[in-house]
């Protein structure tokens, strides 16, 4: 390791815990993160069958507060965040003026005038800077003040418990009087509780396709909480999991990854997230509105251009990122993510293909280093848990 690497790499507050567990590390968005602890296949299966424990502290946390916080987020993001009920969360996108996706994120409305925005790791500084610039523009166009931004990314840790046993593990950590708050918590909702005596924001969200929770905690209590969760999980077959299994889990669940499925070169309509864009449900301008309206009017992702689809392999070999997608020997698209599905037993992939070849049931090929391998367009997600 060079001196430059030592200076520039970022480590979460749980780095030492991962090292003690024998984690293999990888760089992700400038962070040294656990790739896996042993078998990534075993970690994947644990989340599907019992429970997995993830450190997601590389994600960003930006607090938006004040009487006009909701109106500001309506201007800064493509969704109508002012309509989100207190205690609920909403998936949204931050787009550039030309409609390209800067990041996808989750917004939690923690109180009437308080929102928590969670951007992706590598994009967190970009989103924070965009918010600052958009706040200035928002004030200029609306003559509205009363909005405060606070980037708490550097001081906040995020720990996830995912899988069928996740609720039982969290219940073992909270006091009896808060048990109902956990069991009644709906998907895409959050509540403040004490876990192992530590105040946390508990969200029923995740990136695996399973039931699960994400716990926001100050860095200085992260190691304590991690140890408490591991202790509570001993009787529930809880397994620490790295980014490798997180990637295979999210792919099975058909969830996009920024830098693969989402980028500045892609609009929400092409990515299949046109429903996230509130072109008709909110009044007033928002960043990218004109471009996105034009894209919708042009039929982007629906009648013209490209569209993100799911591909099921009909053979045994998997497509990988950037592999060409073919129709009758001619390239009509490109794989963005792909690998064998541990749960389903066949290869799966996400890919952008020409709209005319995007219908479910369409037979396509993926060029696997010179050999055409058969795939079929299927509905997403590939895997859906039994509730």
From TrEMBL:
Signal peptide: none annotated. GO terms for molecular function: aminomethyltransferase activity. It comes from the Bacteria. The keyword Transport does not apply. Residues 14-279 form the GCVT N-terminal domain. Keywords: Aminotransferase, Transferase. Pfam families: GCV_T, GCV_T_C. It catalyses: N(6)-[(R)-S(8)-aminomethyldihydrolipoyl]-L-lysyl-[protein] + (6S)-5,6,7,8-tetrahydrofolate = N(6)-[(R)-dihydrolipoyl]-L-lysyl-[protein] + (6R)-5,10-methylene-5,6,7,8-tetrahydrofolate + NH4(+). Residues 306-384 form the Aminomethyltransferase C-terminal domain. The glycine cleavage system catalyzes the degradation of glycine. HAMAP family: GcvT. The glycine cleavage system is composed of four proteins: P, T, L and H. NCBIfam families: gcvT, PRK00389.1. This is Aminomethyltransferase. It comes from Sinomonas terricola.
């Amino acid at each position: 390791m060079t001196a430059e690497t030592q200076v520039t790499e970022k480590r979460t507050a749980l780095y030492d815990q991962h090292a003690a567990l024998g984690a293999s590390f990888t760089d992700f968005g400038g962070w040294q993160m656990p790739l896996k602890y042993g078998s990534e296949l075993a970690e994947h299966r644990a989340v599907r069958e019992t429970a997995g424990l993830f450190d997601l502290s590389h994600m960003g946390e930006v607090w938006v507060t004040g009487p006009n916080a909701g109106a500001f987020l309506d201007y800064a993001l493509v969704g109508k965040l002012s309509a989100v009920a207190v205690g609920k969360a909403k998936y949204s996108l931050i787009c550039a003026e030309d409609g390209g996706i800067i990041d996808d994120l989750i917004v939690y409305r923690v109180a009437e005038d308080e929102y928590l925005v969670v951007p992706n790791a590598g994009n967190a500084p970009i989103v924070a800077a965009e918010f600052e610039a958009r706040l200035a523009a928002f004030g200029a166009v609306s003559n509205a003040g009363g909005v405060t931004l606070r980037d708490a990314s550097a001081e906040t840790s995020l720990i996830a418990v995912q899988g069928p046993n996740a609720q039982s593990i969290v219940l073992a950590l909270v006091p009896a009087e808060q048990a109902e708050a956990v069991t009644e918590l709906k998907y895409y909702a959050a509540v403040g509780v004490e876990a192992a005596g530590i105040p946390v924001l508990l969200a029923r969200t995740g990136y695996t396709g399973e039931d699960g929770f994400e716990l926001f905690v100050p860095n200085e209590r992260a190691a304590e909480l991690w140890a408490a969760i591991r202790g509570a999980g001993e009787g529930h077959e809880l397994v620490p999991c790295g980014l490798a299994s997180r990637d295979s889990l999210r792919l099975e669940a058909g969830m996009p990854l920024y830098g693969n499925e989402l980028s500045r070169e892609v609009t929400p309509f092409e990515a299949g997230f046109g429903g996230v864009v509130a072109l008709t449900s909110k009044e007033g301008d928002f960043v990218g509105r004109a471009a996105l309206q034009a894209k919708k009017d042009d039929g982007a992702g629906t009648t013209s251009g490209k569209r993100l689809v799911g591909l099921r392999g009909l053979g045994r070999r998997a497509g990988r990122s950037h592999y060409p997608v073919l129709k009758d020997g001619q390239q009509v698209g490109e794989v963005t993510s792909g690998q064998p599905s541990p749960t389903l037993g066949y290869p799966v992939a996400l890919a952008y293909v020409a709209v005319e070849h995007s219908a479910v049931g369409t037979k396509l090929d993926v060029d696997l280093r010179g050999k055409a391998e058969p795939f079929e367009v299927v509905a997403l997600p590939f895997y859906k848990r039994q509730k």
